[in-house]
Amino acid sequence: MSIEGSRIAVTGGAGGMGRAIATMAAERGARVYLLDLDPKVAEVAADHHAAGGSVTDITAPASASAGVLAAVDALGGLDVLVNGAGWDHPALFANTTPAEWQRIVAINYLGVLAVTHSALPALRESGAGAVICIASDTARVGGWGEAVYAGAKGAVVSFSKSLAREEARHNVRVNCVSPSVTDTAFQARLEEDDLGRKIVEGAVRATPMRRVGQPAEVAEAVLFLASPAAGYITGQVLSVNGGVAM
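Above: the chain sequence. Below: its structure as tokens.
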């Protein structure tokens, strides 16, 4: 399961989930590059022993492409892409607006397309590339107050399975890690209003293990799929969810 020497780009790398993945990867000898809309991404990269970081808006294809090119240049190639960026604003669908739909879909799905498309040439060139997309168990079971987000994550899962079929001949594997509620800034934002708090509390009550997940637990699953130990695994969804969906 060693990822020592692997060249890994992580979108959402300055956030809780992405930061946990990047930090764990760097600690295990990988060379890591962070892409994030946060203007402090380069500082986060330096603090967590990453090779660098670029301010990247994955919802803008030109920015996504520039970020990927910066990662490839800094790392001298690319072996693994982790699509970790995500965002949601909890609301019952009847109360949402087209502008909210556009933002949720752009960040959670269209951004995955833009970054992955730009990264494919380098991943193919690596000879054993891997794409890991952070999905969500709402993609499988739905999410009360998260209809648009769940739909976007469902699209990520379907895209990943389809791309896995297309890229297998180039020895590029594509998989998803599917968390439930996890202790990150993303969860903290959900809990800023009453509806989001109800979503989190309901998810914990429905979880057999009766707790939220930890970013490191998700990171372990991501790095397994990034490693040679998962060399014959593609097109799969690995849930890290405490048993909330089986």
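The CA atoms of residues 12 and 18 lie 5 Å apart.
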